[in-house]
Amino acid sequence: MEKLFVSSSSFILPKNPAWDKINKNFDLNFKYADNYYNLLLSNENDATIICILFLKDFYDDKMLSDINEKKIDKINSGVLKLIQKKIKITKKPLIIALSSYFDSNIIETAFKNSLSEKIHLNFNLNFQKIQKKNKNLYLLDLNITFSNEGYKNIFDKRNYYLANCRLSMHGLETLVESLNSFLERIKYPPKKLLILDCDNTLWGGVVGEDGIASLDLGQDGIGRAFLDFQKTIKNLSKKGYLLAISSKNNERDVLEVFDKHQFMQIKIEDIVNFKINWQEKSQNIIQMSKELDLGLDSMVFWDDNPFERAKMRKKIPEITTIEPNEDVTYWSDQLKDLMEFSKFDVTKEDLKKTQQYKMRSKFIENKKTSSNEYEFLRSIELKTKNFNLNKSNISRASQMTQKTNQFNLRTKRYSENEIQKISKNKKNMIFLTQLEDIYGDHGIVGLLIAKELSKENLFIDTFLMSCRILGRSMETWMMAQLKNYAKKKKYKFILAEYIPSEKNQICSEFLKDHNFKLKKKDLKNEKIQTYCAEFKNINVSKSDVYN
Question: What is each CA distance from 350 to 210, 337, 421, 431, 517, in whole angstroms?
Answer without folding.
Answer: 37, 19, 25, 20, 37
